[in-house]
Amino acid sequence: MSATIDPEVLQQLVAQAVKQLQTEGSRPCAAAAAAPAAKEEYGVFETIGAAIDASAEAQHTLLFQPPRTRQKWVDVIRKTCLKKDVMEIISRMAVEETGIGRYEDKVTKNTAAARYTPGIEDLITDARTGDHGITLFEYCPFGVIGAITPTTNPTETIINNSICMIAGGNTVVFSPHPRACKTSIFLVQTLNKALVEAGAPDNMITMIRKPTIDATNEMIDNPKVRMLVATGGPGIVKKVLSSGKKAIGAGPGNPPAVVDETANIEQAAQDIVAGSSFDNNVPCIAEKEVFAVDTIFDYLMINMKGAGAYEIKDRNVIEQLWRLVSNEKGGPKVEFVGKSAQYILDKIGIQVDDSKRLIIMEVNKDHPFVQTEMMMPILPLVRCDNVDQAIEWAHETEHGNRHSAMMHSTNITKLSKMAKLMETTIFVKNGPSFAGLGIGGEGYPTFTIAGPTGEGLTSPKSFCRRRECVLKDMFNIR
Ligand code: NAD
């Protein structure tokens, strides 16, 4: 999954794409003069109402297309995103526009989303037959779906949601984060163009040119939008859940990793550093704190340093770092979210090279680095008396999000205890967090992990309605 385009050529392609959006397109993020939506806008509209109307029209066409045709559109999305230039542009643009994450990791995530998000095979029909005939239970479209996407995974979420929703026979109106506006426009237009060229209905994937909170509110209230999906922080999840419509909420986490004395410590260290530093720690599933038992604590630290972590020992420097990266409300300062360890350390006068992927430190359980979802490559470690204390503290620190957790152990009793107690959507045993998304683990990727509403790792059927179709007294062949 590595990138091979010449960096200079890539730079030119990104510059070209940004320039194009800044001229014709970029009424995008600047003030928008209300121009009528032209067909060549490829899914990008001046008003949210126009984006929804076009989406409804597209959905009406899609509704009468058979599943194999929907699979064809899904394949077009996959193929388009996997084109080398598209993949590299969206991955580069996302990092440049949002200032979040690492290019190589965006390539990995976008590739996983494009290649492995489930398609129509996810929609399995059940049938019941008996003396009175046959009844089919099928996954059917909701219609137009309004999907709100985060700054942290702007393109991954658009790719993943589009595949799932269109496989399910829906169309989608995206409301991206304003800080990922240009990247989202580029991707929506690229996908629509490819779909239309392949013969798909126009505007299966739409968005407003200039995303705002007002536009999102309007989308939430629009009666043509039959389902809402929010991938983001607690505010937007709460908002869609209070909308009175069917809503899927994929909210925040604060995933802990527990390491006990029975674990393969060298491997655990590798896995934790890899998972926690992946895309500079912005994935909602990434290890955000570690609880390790005392007897292996120091050895784990040594191995983590060997795996690319940089340790800060001085208490004063740890506090200086906290003041640097936190805001007055005790949350992460936006300008440090998704920045590299090298960048963050430089701001406190510590120079390291880019092979240092993660900043680690020993703190106590109540330290704000432990208790807060920071989304930056800073990983606090807490020394615990024993595995039961580590599990208890991990549970407490996850704050009931029931999102994700990891454990490194060979003690099946304790692995089972933690898995049960945490009640998280994703629980990874003896692997990095991203194994929970099918990256190096079994399963499939999703970028909308719906803990609060219970769909879990969303797939096409999450965006469908269960309907039944009854034929009385016939077609029972038993
Ligand atoms: P965010 O909540 O700031 O923004 C998410 C989206 O909601 C954006 O499009 C934003 O514009 C919109 N939004 C936020 N508040 C709104 C409001 N009041 N009205 C209308 N729209 C609003 O989150 P973010 O910083 O972009 O993303 C990071 C958060 O998302 C983290 O908490 C992370 O854990 C979570 N996340 C969860 C998942 C998951 O699958 N569960 C996936 C990715 C990110």
Automatic annotation (TrEMBL):
InterPro entries, A to Z: Acetald_propionald_DH-rel, Ald_DH/histidinol_DH, Ald_DH_C, Ald_DH_N, Aldehyde_DH_dom
Keyword hit for Endoplasmic reticulum: no
Positions of the Aldehyde dehydrogenase domain: 46-301, 359-432
Annotated SUPFAM superfamilies: ALDH-like
Keywords of this entry: NAD, Oxidoreductase
GO MF terms, alphabetically ordered: acetaldehyde dehydrogenase (acetylating) activity
Name this polypeptide is given: Aldehyde dehydrogenase
UniProt organism field: Megasphaera cerevisiae DSM 20462
Source organism phylogeny: Bacteria, Bacillati, Bacillota, Negativicutes, Veillonellales
